[in-house]
What we know:
Elements: H1 8-15, H2 19-26, H3 34-46, H4 53-60, E1 65-70, H5 79-91, E2 95-100, H6 105-117, E3 122-126, H7 135-142, E4 147-150, E5 159-163, H8 165-179, E6 184-187, H9 194-209, H10 214-217, E7 218-221, H11 230-241, E8 249-252, H12 255-267, E9 277-279, E10 296-298, H13 301-313, E11 320-323, E12 326-328
Keywords: DNA-binding, Transcription, Transcription regulation
Pfam family, one: Peripla_BP_3
GO molecular function: DNA-binding transcription factor activity; transcription cis-regulatory region binding
Amino acid sequence: MKNPVHSTSELARRLGLSRWTVSRALNGHTGINPETAARVRDEAKKAGFSPSILGRGLRSGRTDLIGIVAPDLEEYFLTRKLSVLRLRIEEAGYHGIIQMTDSSPASERAALERFRAIRCNGVLTFASILGPRDIGLQRLKEAKIPCVQIDPLLKTSGIIAGTDRLEAQRLTLEHLFSLGHRQIGVFGIDSSTTYGRQRYDGITAACTAAGLSPEKTLRWFPRQHPKDDFTTGYALAHEFAKTRQRPTAIVTINDRMALGAIRGLQESDLDVPRDISVIGYDNADFSAYCNPSLTTIDPQGDTLMRGALDMILAPKSLGHFRVQPTLIVRQSTAAPSQVH
C-alpha cells in the first residue's frame, strides 16, 4: 500500500483538516458535515488506517469490546452458545473477545484483569469458579464494568444468568412417570458439583412430588471416567446391563452420555426404547439424528445467551436471569415393557 497512514494526526494533515474533525468522523460522532465525514472515511480506507480501539478506550473510559471468559468448550457445550453470542454482540454493534482459561481461579482472574485493563464495555463468564468477594470480580466492579456470570459454579452475589436445572429434572421425571416408569437409573449425576447438585435435588424432588420414594425409585450409577462423554455412557450401560432387577429407564447428565449409553445397551442386546427408555440433556445437534432419536431437555441456550448479553447492554437492575428449559420428546422413550 502506497503512503500508509499510522495515526489520526497524519490523516488530518493529509486531508487538511483538524485532528478533532477527523477523530469525530472516524468514530461516528454527530456535528460533522456528512460529506466531510465520508471523505475522511474514504481516505482512511485507502490508507489502510483505523483508529486504535485501546486508545479510544483510554480516552473515553470504554471500548466497544465485550469480554468473554470460557473454560473447556467441549465439556460445557459452549460451541453453539459462543456462536449465538458472537452474532448477538455484532448485531448490537460491539465486538467480542474470548479468553480461554484452564478452569483454575488464577487463570480466570487473569482473564478478568486483562478485560479490565483494556476497558471492555462488559464481561461475560461461563462456569465461573470465583467467589463473590474475589479480587478479580471486585476490580471489575470498581471499574464500573458489568460482569454477568453464566451458570457460575459457586454461589455469588453478582449478576447471574442460567438455566433452571431443577425444572429440567422435573420435566424429565414427570415424562418418565407419565409413561409408567417407576424404577429409574441415573447416569453421571451426583451431588459433588454445583451443576450436579442442582440436578440431584431436582430428581429427588420430582420423585417426592409424585409420591414416590427417591431411595426406592432411583438407582445411581456414578461415572468412573473423568468426563461426561460417550465413553462414560457406554461403560455405564454395560455395567447397567449386568445388574439384576434393572430399572426400566435411564436419565443421563447429557446427550453425549445418553448416546454412548444407547450404544452400550444395544451391544448388550437391550432395545431402546422397548426394553429401556433413555433421556438426555442439552438437545445437542446429533440428538435428533441418532437411532433411535433422543428424547432430551433443551436448556434454551440461545435464549440464555441473548438474555445474558442484554443484562450488559441494557441493564435494568442487578439480579438473576433464569431460563426455563423445555422437554423434546423423540423415539428413545416409551412405556416400559411388561416383560422384565
